[in-house]
Prior knowledge:
Elements: H1 2-14, H2 27-34, E1 47-55, E2 66-76, E3 81-92, E4 95-109, E5 114-130, H3 132-137, E6 147-151, E7 155-164, E8 168-175, E9 182-185, E10 191-194, E11 200-211, E12 215-226, E13 229-240, E14 243-250, E15 268-275, E16 281-288, E17 299-308
Antiparallel strand pairs: 1-2, 1-17, 2-3, 3-4, 4-5, 5-6, 5-7, 7-8, 8-11, 9-10, 11-12, 12-13, 13-14, 14-15, 15-16, 16-17
Amino acid sequence: MRKTLLAFCFLSLNFLSAQEDPYFRQMENMLRTFNPAFNGIEDFDKRSLLLNFRDQFMNFSSGEPITFSATYGGRFDKLHGGADVSYLYDQIGLQKANWIGLKYDAQFALGEKTDLGIGARANFGFVSFDFGSAVTTAPDPILPTGIQKGTIIPDIDFGLMVTRGTSFFFSLSARHLTEPSATVKGPTGIDFDINTQYRTYYAMLGGRIERGKHLTISYAADYRQTGSTGHGEGRIEARWRFLYAGFFCVLDRWKDSNTGMPRYVNPYGFTFGFSRKDGRLHIISSYEPAYINNSFGSSFETGVKYVFGKKD
């Protein structure tokens, strides 16, 4: 129990100086959450609702990284573009953050089958910390105690996306352009900056290959740069009729370049679920086994998408 509490405190106190975005394993959730220019690939011009739940390091009894996101939107003719509203709840250790986002994107034809999307998103967040357990395991008279709250200033994201039908896409986005932060005051009057968001850059490219009437193969590689830290991932997925399965792997070195200690990232995982190409309902889950040198345990993510106005 003591090791678990120390781990919570280590994670949370590291996040006092800066926080990174949650790293989704599911491709569509990565695109839709982190690139405001995304307006669907197969479901272009359709409105949809996407729900996602992510539980990382599941052998923690409490305080493990947990993320829930919900996004509704799509193409709106009256707006001459795409728009959506999103909600993101992100918890890690002692911190809980709630974000609400509003985005707009415009689409431009570059050729007969090639389109360019340009989008921006305004985010508004609120964060809270409970430093009670941190004080019991690592006493420090200058640390805040109890629940501390701070309002996050508005944040801005920007993105570009090029698509060639459903066969190829390239996504590039920049998040937290304002690098928002909040401040709490400790019992000795010292101010602590919490939840400072690093400016983060995302790149992803991929495509889809049709093999016959029922088989679709998807592939993608993505890279994220946050401050001085880079992280990449590759994946391949296949859908046969309505069955969906895939494999992904982490592309970085898995170790901290300064300390040589393992990062708390699992090196590979699996995706499975139900995803009919022309269907309304899509249910996809991702699972990462515990890495042998990673005592933080396995991770699980599941997403549900419902497409409106689309026939089975």
